[in-house]
Amino acid sequence: MAPDTETDLHQRSRWHDPALPLRIGVSTCLLGEAVRYDKGHAKNRFVTDTLSRWFDFVPVCPEVEVGMGIPRPTIRLVEREGEVRLVAPSTGEDFTDVMAAYAEKKVTQLQKLDLDGYILKSRSPSCGMERIKVYLENGMPAQTSDSGMFAAALKRQWPALPLEEEGRLNDHRLRENFIERVFCRNRWRGLVAKGLSRRSLVEFHTAHKLLLLAHNEAAYRRMGKLVGSAGTIPDQDLFQQYELEFQSALNTKATVRRHVNVLQHAMGHLKNKLQSRQKREILTAIQDFADGILPLIVPMTLMRYNIRHFDVEYLMGQLYFDPHPKELMLRNHA
Ligand code: SF4
User: How far apart are CA 135 and CA 121, in angstroms?
Assistant: First the structure.
């Protein structure tokens, strides 16, 4: 008998373990906490009002945690004798060493909490993910830019962790990409928690096939080879490499062209069940999405309905059709 709910359709319960809450690190000031240098905050409503319904937050303010106090002098990245240092220009105090030691230890602690992702405050010399201005000693901007010091440690020590800046979350595609990566990491964590085996890895890889193809087909094929190499390399290495490849593949932005390819591929599994009018309706919606007339949610919804109606087993197992809760409406604008 065909399943009758969206949840049944895409086996959310199988891959989303309700006992494993979604947990993300976040720059404390984004939650509205007055921890900035001027006793202000940088509350982000998408984080506090929307994501808070789905995620548990682990707030981190590196500058407060290294003891810089509130309020405090502003700090910046300064190029000094070939190195980038974290300095308070008004006092000349150099926080590089204390921040580096703190960041290394803090990231190790966060790894023990097994986060699913991290949202960083942009334009901060501590938290900024990229393009943070570096200055020369004379106060002029240098030619280079860098990551904030804490963000750099996160990237270096935890390359598989989905990271994003709050400003970039205003871009619908980047937002969907980040949330998708967070849910993917949570599913991966669930798999590991249950005891990762080669068989479960094959099933996981299969369930994410269309989703991965929408991002990076070459990476999907590489990961397939990796899964196929089970037994020839130590399991731990295999799982570690897979996770890295998995997150790195998802980090490639899904494009309209790739989505269209995936939808057409999925149609190959559905079309024999459809009458010509239904087929035409879906193909027109796919074309309209390709032409930018309709959002992804439209062909997706039509296909989901038919997959459920005709009980197409292969597509029912594909997380591409259900990578995150529909209430987040992430594909309504994509
Ligand atoms: S950007 Fe980072 S260091 Fe600065 S106030 Fe926010 S959380 Fe603290």
Answer: 20
263-308 pLDDT per residue, tens: 999 999 999 999 999 999 999 999 999 999 999 999 999 999 999 9
* Ligand 1 atom at minimum distance from 29 CA: 6
Query: pTM for this structure?
Result: 0.91
What is the best residue among 124, 129, 149, 154 to mutate for testing ligand 1's pocket, by most ligand atoms within 8 Å of CB? 124
Contact 325, 18 (CB under 8 A): no
Contacts of 293 (CB under 8 A, 6+ apart): none
Ligand 1 close to Cβ of residue 29 (< 6 A): yes
Ligand 1 centre and the CA of 27: distance in Å? 6
CB under 8 Å to 301, separation ≥6 — which residues? none
Looking from the CA of residue 126, the nearest atom of ligand 1 is 3
Q: Residue 32: its pLDDT value, please?
A: 98
pLDDT range class, residue 13, cuts 50, 70, 90: low
Res 8 pLDDT > 50: no
SS3 of the chain: helix, strand, coil, percent, to 5: 55, 15, 35
Q: Are residues 117 and 181 in contact, defined by beta-carbon separation less than 8 angstroms? A: yes
